[in-house]
């Protein structure tokens, strides 16, 4: 049964979001389809850098996965400053961090949809746990990946994926989409 754990005011995890069997299947699908060097879609203090992220990724658009995850997670996801959480973004990225790979300190980019909806929280689902290192480090806390667990945090929080010391770390990334029901809130993320 999924369970929410708050790690700080803005960072939380939900356990048992994806079963061990489904995690293995997702890793298999991503490896079968192939990985490529990850794009530099992260924000650092000055600009976007190509050398911040050394992992590989496999992008995949999948509305059915987004809907399934939303049904499982919506009761755990908070609204934010007048914004209402409405879905999981259907643009996913499988990422593989092999031994010696990491993602240095950065902030995640916000996605704005044509409808005016936009993302506010990043979501990372850990698809395995048989590796060494690879914790996600924030300024105030560190998160050790657990099989099938989802991690949520606001895009604008600086964080890093620590160096993987052995084995390979697999994650599935996406975003939580929010709407402004009143149409009055400026929801552009701060860059600081």
Task: Give a summary of the structure in a few sentences.
By secondary structure, the protein is mainly beta. The chain has two helices and 15 strands. It has helices at residues 20-33, 63-73, and strands at 4-6, 12-14, 36-37, 56-61, 84-88, 91-98, 103-106, 118-126, 132-133, 136-138, 142-143, 150-154, 159-161, 164-166, 168-179.
The CATH topology annotation reads as: Jelly Rolls
C-alpha Rg, in Å?
16 Å
What spatial form do the alpha-carbon principal axes imply?
A: globular
Query: Structural class of the secondary structure composition?
Result: mainly beta
Average pLDDT for all residues: 87
N-to-C span: 36 Å
Helix content: 10-25%
How many separate domains?
A: 1
What is the H level of CATH, i.e. the homologous superfamily?
Answer: q2cbj1_9rhob like domain
Number of E strands: 15
Biggest β-sheet description: 9 strands, antiparallel
Query: What would CATH call the class?
Result: Mainly Beta
Report the order of strands and helices.
EEHEEHEEEEEEEEEEE
| DSSP strand content | 35-45%
CATH architecture: Sandwich
Any low-confidence stretches, pLDDT <50, length ≥5?
Answer: 42-50
Number of helices: 2
Structure description:
The protein contains two helices and 15 strands. It is mainly beta and 192 residues long. It has a single domain, classed as Jelly Rolls (Sandwich). Strands 1, 2, 3, 4, 5, 6, 8, 12 and 15 form a nine-stranded antiparallel sheet that branches. A hairpin with a 3-residue loop joins strand 10 and strand 11. The relative contact order is 0.24.
